[in-house]
Fold this protein.
Amino acid sequence: MKVYNTLTRKEEEFKTVDPHIVRMYVCGMTVQDSPHAGHMRTFTSFDVIRRYLEYRGFEVRHIQNFTDIDDKIIIKSKEQGLDWRVLAYRYMEEYRKVADMMNFRPPIFYPQATIHIQEIIEITASLVNKGIAYVVDGNVWYDVSKFPDYGKLSKKSIEELKEGARIEPDPTKRNAPDFALWKKRKPGEPYWHSPWGEGRPGWHIECSAMSITHLGETLDIHGGAEDLIFPHHENEIAQSEAYTGKPFANYWLHAGFLTLKGEKMSKSIGNIFRATDLLEQFDANTVRLFYLKAHYRSRLDFSRELLEDARRGWQRIRNFLQDSRGLEGNILPQYMRQFEEAMDDDFNTPQAIALVFNMVNEGYRDKEQMPHIAQTLRLILTTLGFKLEEEEAGRRLRDVMDVLIGVRNELRKRKEFDLSDRIRDELRKVGILLEDSKGGTRWKII
C-alpha cells in the first residue's frame, strides 16, 4: 500500500509504528457555525481511508477533535448574544447528526480543546523551560527560529514568512512568524488560570495536546484539509517535535478543497452550502458518490449538474442491487484484487468507482454471474462507506412490497384491473416502479 505524504511530496510505502495498528488524528471542526459541504468532503475522505485500512486488517485508532474555543467562536457568540459554550455545543451536536446521516464511522473519541487545558499548559511550560518559547506580558510565543526544520511541511522558509505570509501581528513578539501558545485574557473573554496568568490556549497547541494525549508522541497519519498545511500543521510539527524530540507524524494526508465556481468553499468567503441543506436535496449515498468520483487530494467543483449525475449513478447501482436481491453468491477474487489495487494506490476512489460501474454492467450482461457480482459489489460498497438497503428499513420495505405485489397479483387473477392498476400508479407517485413480465413482477425505486 502506498500513500502520498505531503511532508515528502511523494508516494511512500505505508508502514505503521506498531504492526496492525494505525494511529490517525484528523483535524475536526472549529465549531462556530454549521458544517458545510466542504467539511463533508474532507471527512468523507478520511472516513473512506479509515474504512479501507480496517478492511486491510488494521486496528485504526481514529481521533477527530472539536476546536471549541478560539477567536472565531468568541466573536460569533458575542454577535449572537450566546454563551460561547452554548454556541460550541450547538454546532458539535449538528456535526454529529450530519456525520450520522453521512454514515461516517465514529472515531474512538471526539476530544475537545477545553477539556485538555492541563495538557496544553504542561506542553507550553516545557517549551518555555527549554527556551523554545518565551513569555511577554502574559502571552506565550513559540520562537520559530529555535526550530531548524520549521517550514519542512509547507516548504516555506522563515525568510519568506518574515515578508508577511500569514502571520499574527503583535508588538510583543520577537519575530514576525512566531505564533501563540497561550493568549493573555482580554476583557469579556473566557479564560483559564496558568503559570503566566489568566488566558486561553492558541489554536495550534490544542491539536498537539489532544493528539499526543490520546495517540502518543508519534502518529502514523495526521490528516485534514489542504488549507491546514500552513500555518496549522506546520506549527503543530514545530511545537510537538520540540516537546517530545520525536517525529510527530510519519504520514501527512491532506484532502483537496471543495470549490464553488473555482473558489474554495469557506465561511469567511460566504460561498458555503450547508451540509443539512445538501442532505435535504440529495441522499447521503449520492453525496458520497459525488465526492468519491474525485481523488481525495484533487480539488472538486461543487455543482448541481455533478450531483444530479451522481444521483443517476447511485440509482443505477441501487437498481442492480435490487434486481439481484435474494440471489446468493460468492465473493469474486478478481474484482476484489482490482479494488485493492486501486485503493492501495493512495486510496484511488475514482478507479474504485469506475470498477463498481463496470461490475454493474457486467452483472446485467451475465445473468449467471449476477449473484456473485452483486455479493462482491456489496462488500466493495460497504468498504467505501455506502449505506446499503440491507438495513432494517430496507428489509421492511421489501416485506411490504412482497405483500402489495401478492395482493395485486390476486386482483389481476380476478380481473380487477382497475384496482391493480391503481396500486401500480400510486406506487409510481411515491417513487416505486413495478415491472410486470412473464417471470413475475419486480419493483425498484426510481
